[in-house]
């Protein structure tokens, strides 16, 4: 606070313009003060700096009122001072060349010139007022002063705060560190002020004005940079930064989901595209296509069909699979973005390269097909295996026969099965059918001995329409015709009448049949499996079986040994049949080990069939679920059979050895069956003492053998 | 992601004459799915060798189609139904 020296206050000279016209001339030399105040209706309204005016119109000292008014300045901007001046008022003074000094009662005391006020200010030594400092610090804006070398030579605290810096960091440093070097250069070069430049760095957002400082020669000597801290700007800056990051993330996310994304406007012009694009899809650089119409590409034949066009036409989502030049498959999905009026505003085209997916899918399909095939084949094998499992055997002899049957199954050769009644010839025939490639075709069984001789012919070969009285009027297909592509099993072939043998021979030779009463042969493709329990050679010798037919049938002879020649099979078969019956009647019969021994000892003249029936008989008759040897032997009439059938020796061995062997077997068997030597001796027809002695010896030998085999 | 679905695409240009499926309907291999009438006037039957569930139906009766356009997305079965 300081007061104004009274002598510096100058009188206000007023000039009333109420009665003057614009054209009126005014003699200005009359006015001694440099400033003239204009009055209208008794109110000061403007002032004129006469010195400026007079420099121009110095010649005649006369000025038209219009000129006066034109060069006048409104009084409103002039500051009114009390006699006591406070510092903030100083800033008002700086803006105008003069200030009006008010009287306490409200009237005007006079005016004071700016330089006088300032001079007055500098005189106030005791107050030590650093005006510049005050000016700099009191402005709520940041101010940086640059010299000719673009070095920051001064700044205020607000500026430092806004720029988030300290005086040490900026003072006497190149301004480019903080501000735009380009703008600074520009101001120096052009002398023009750059206003409202938004500068956003990491965490600050400020509004900058670059203003030149001119010297008297109108050269730019330095720059004032005014910094405005706009919280809004900073917020915006943050938001922009956030959006930038978001954009980056979105781009990354989108590019990992899609291979290419395009944004097109409602006219089909490309607005933007994703970072990554599908190579080779567009024949042009997408950068060049920005702002251009994508539909043109289609017209130019650069690529087709255009999703954009389809979306524009249909106004809904459209997906198209397109192929690139290099044969890649692209799935492009065009999604319209609608505005409030439900019109298309934008189209987003998201594309994905599905070449790999398609290829993998095709491969998968192929693999699936192959695995299906494998599965089928495996099932096939399993089925065959299952069938083979149904064949119950354990003996190497049967093993050999089954292996042979398996081999035969792959061919369509005629098979001649030979074996005693009940050995399972039909089972083997079925096995050949099941294991072979005719398994899906018919298997017909015909017992040549069971059908009356005169019917057999029509059964086998069929008959033509009206062949004989009582025949079906439409004729009948024979077995051979029915079994076409399949297998016909002729059981008891030895029973076949001679005259049919000729016909059968014809079928075998020519692969065709002539129905009864017809002359036209019919082609058939039938595999024949014949079976007999007779020695066909002997029948040939006796003349009841045609020799040529015999040789025709005897392509693959298969001899099925009787059950007594494959004792190993007896137990498994017995268990199998027992199980079958147990399952069927929900019983739990079982055979004791000694019962099995008895079964194995029996010669089974009726073979497997007999075994099956005996088991059934045992189950039906037994009271006890455990079927033992004693019970079994009641049904088998061992003695009788023993006397009847003789031991069979299949190879030449020394007589004594054979006798010893038979003796041992007999004694063991008898002891097993009768438990006491007395009973065994009776059954064997020798003395008790000799049985006892021999049995003892056998047991001793056996024990010795066991001991010998025990390792020390 | 839609991308892992199978697509049923139009092999020809034309107009959808009949649609035999709806959203979420189940299809089997070689079922007739779409009938498309070509500009030449003959009707193309769209069938595919996969079975599965329709994920989304992309066209309606009367709509114009072009070669390559996706008619429907299908979620394929991972097992073989084996009707062929």
Automatic annotation (TrEMBL), chain A:
Family matches, as Pfam families: AAA_lid_14, HTH_50, PAS_9, Sigma54_activat
Domain PAC: 314-366
Residue stretches making up the Sigma-54 factor interaction domain: 391-620
Residue stretches in coiled coil: 357-384
Record's keyword terms, sorted: Aromatic hydrocarbons catabolism, ATP-binding, Coiled coil, Nucleotide-binding, Transcription, Transcription regulation
SUPFAM superfamilies with a match to the protein in the record: Homeodomain-like, P-loop containing nucleoside triphosphate hydrolases, PYP-like sensor domain (PAS domain)
Annotated GO biological process: regulation of DNA-templated transcription
UniProt xrefs under CDD domains: AAA, PAS
Molecular function terms, GO-annotated: ATP binding; DNA binding
InterPro entries, sorted: AAA+_ATPase, AAA_lid_NorR, Homeodomain-like_sf, HTH_TyrR, P-loop_NTPase, PAS, PAS-assoc_C, PAS-like_dom_sf
Domain of life: Bacteria
Name this polypeptide is given: HTH-type transcriptional regulatory protein TyrR
Source organism of this protein record: Cytobacillus oceanisediminis
TrEMBL record, chain B:
Name of the protein described by the UniProt record: Biotin/lipoyl-binding protein
């Amino acid at each position: 606070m300081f007061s104004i020296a009274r002598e510096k206050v100058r009188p206000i000279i007023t000039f009333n313009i109420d009665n003057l016209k614009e054209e009126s001339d005014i003699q200005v030399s009359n006015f001694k003060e440099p400033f003239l105040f204009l009055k209208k209706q008794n109110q000061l309204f403007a002032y004129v700096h006469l010195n400026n005016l007079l420099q121009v119109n110095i010649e005649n000292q006369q000025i038209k009122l219009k000129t006066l008014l034109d060069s006048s300045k409104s009084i409103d901007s002039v500051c009114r001072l009390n006699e006591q001046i406070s510092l903030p008022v100083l800033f008002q003074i700086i803006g105008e060349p003069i200030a009006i000094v008010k009287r306490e009662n409200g009237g005007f005391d006079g005016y004071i010139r700016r330089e006088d006020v300032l001079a007055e200010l500098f005189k106030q030594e005791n107050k030590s007022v650093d005006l510049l400092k005050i000016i700099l610090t009191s402005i709520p804006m940041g101010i940086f002063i640059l010299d000719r070398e673009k070095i920051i030579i001064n700044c205020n605290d607000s500026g430092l705060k806004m720029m988030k810096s300290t005086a040490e960091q900026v003072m006497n440093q190149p301004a480019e560190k903080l501000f735009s070097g380009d703008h600074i250069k520009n101001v120096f070069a052009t002398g023009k002020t750059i206003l409202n430049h938004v500068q956003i760095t990491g965490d600050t957002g400020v509004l900058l004005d670059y203003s030149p400082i001119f010297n008297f020669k109108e050269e730019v000597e330095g720059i004032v940079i005014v910094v405005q801290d706009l919280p809004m700007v900073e917020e915006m800056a943050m938001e922009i930064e956030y959006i930038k990051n978001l954009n980056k993330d979105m781009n990354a996310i989108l590019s990992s989901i899609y291979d290419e994304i395009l944004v097109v406007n409602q006219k089909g012009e490309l607005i933007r595209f994703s970072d990554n694009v599908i190579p080779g899809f567009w024949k042009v650089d997408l950068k060049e296509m920005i702002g251009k119409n994508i539909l043109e590409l289609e017209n130019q034949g650069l690529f087709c069909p255009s999703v954009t066009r389809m979306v524009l036409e249909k106004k809904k989502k459209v997906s198209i699979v397109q192929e690139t030049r290099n044969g890649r498959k692209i799935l492009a999905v065009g999604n319209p973005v609608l505005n409030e009026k439900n019109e298309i505003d934008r189209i987003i085209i998201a594309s994905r390269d599905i070449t790999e997916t398609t290829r993998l899918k095709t491969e998968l399909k192929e693999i699936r097909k192959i695995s299906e095939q494998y599965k089928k084949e495996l099932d096939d094998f399993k089925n065959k295996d299952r069938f083979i499992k149904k064949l119950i055997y354990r003996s190497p002899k049967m093993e050999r026969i089954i292996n042979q049957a398996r081999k035969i199954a792959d061919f369509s050769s005629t098979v001649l099965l030979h074996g005693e009644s009940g050995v399972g010839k039909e089972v083997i025939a079925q096995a050949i059918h099941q294991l072979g490639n005719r398994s899906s075709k018919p298997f017909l069984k015909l017992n040549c001995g069971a059908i009356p001789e005169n019917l057999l012919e029509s059964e086998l070969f069929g008959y033509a329409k009206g062949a004989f009285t009582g025949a079906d009027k439409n004729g009948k297909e024979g077995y051979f015709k029915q079994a076409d592509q399949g297998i016909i099993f002729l059981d008891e072939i030895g029973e076949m009448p001679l005259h049919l043998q000729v016909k059968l021979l014809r079928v075998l030779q020519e692969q065709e049949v002539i129905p009864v009463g017809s002359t036209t042969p019919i082609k058939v493709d039938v595999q024949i499996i014949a079976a007999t329990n007779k020695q066909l050679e002997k029948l040939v010798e006796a003349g009841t079986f045609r020799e040529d037919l015999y040789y025709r049938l005897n392509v693959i002879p298969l001899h099925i040994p009787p059950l007594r020649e494959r004792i190993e099979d007896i137990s498994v078969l017995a268990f199998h049949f027992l199980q079958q019956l147990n399952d069927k009647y929900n019983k739990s019969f079982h055979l004791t080990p000694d019962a099995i021994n008895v079964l194995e000892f029996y010669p089974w003249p009726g073979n497997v069939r007999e075994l099956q029936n005996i088991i059934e008989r045992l189950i039906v008759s037994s009271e006890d679920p455990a079927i033992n040897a004693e019970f079994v032997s009641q049904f088998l009439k061992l003695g009788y059979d023993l006397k009847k059938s003789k031991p069979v020796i299949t190879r030449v061995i020394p007589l004594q050895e054979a006798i010893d062997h038979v003796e041992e077997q007999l004694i063991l068997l008898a002891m097993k069956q009768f438990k006491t030597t007395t009973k065994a001796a009776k059954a064997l027809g020798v003395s008790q003492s000799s049985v006892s002695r021999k049995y003892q010896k056998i047991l001793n030998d056996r024990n010795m053998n066991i001991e010998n085999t025990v390792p020390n | 992601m839609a991308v892992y679905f199978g697509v049923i695409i139009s092999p020809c240009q034309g107009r959808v004459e009949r649609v035999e499926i709806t959203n979420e309907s189940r299809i089997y291999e070689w079922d007739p799915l779409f009938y498309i009438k070509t500009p030449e006037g003959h009707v193309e039957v769209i069938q595919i060798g996969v079975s599965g569930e329709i994920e989304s139906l992309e066209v309606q009766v009367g709509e114009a189609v072009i070669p390559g356009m996706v008619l429907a997305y299908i979620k394929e079965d991972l097992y073989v139904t084996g009707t062929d």
